């Protein structure tokens, strides 16, 4: 059974940095795409970025491009989201997700971790 467990959220001032982690378990993820989404109160869930587990190719939403970086550590089965130059509008619950590379829908989700950016 796939499990995704996020950690690393917290309260940070605008302009600061945080690194989120997503520990993945339950299967071999070599053919999976791992992603980060976020959801702010009263708003739709928003794609933040993704990474292919095998080749490490990344893709980012325009709103975070140049500020956020996704990486993965195959040995630790962990995906990271490094967030720099944080803005109050980045405040949200951040969720880790996984999908098989040939599919569109993300079938596996973590429970989320809260990120709050104060102005």
Structural shape: globular
| % residues in beta strands | over 45%
Global structural class: mainly beta
- The count of β-strands is 11
Question: Which ranges are low-confidence, i.e. pLDDT below 50, for 5 or more consecutive residues?
Answer: none
Describe the structure.
With 119 residues, the chain is an all-beta fold. Helix content is 0%, strand content 54%. It has no helices and 11 strands. The chain has strands at 3-7, 10-13, 18-25, 32-39, 46-52, 58-60, 68-73, 78-83, 92-100, 108-109, 113-118. The strands form 2 sheets. Strands 2, 4, 5, 6, 9, 10 and 11 form a 7-stranded mixed β-sheet that branches. The protein has a 4-stranded antiparallel β-sheet with strand order 1-3-8-7, with no helix packed on it. Strand 5 (46-52) and strand 6 form a beta hairpin. The mean pLDDT is 96.
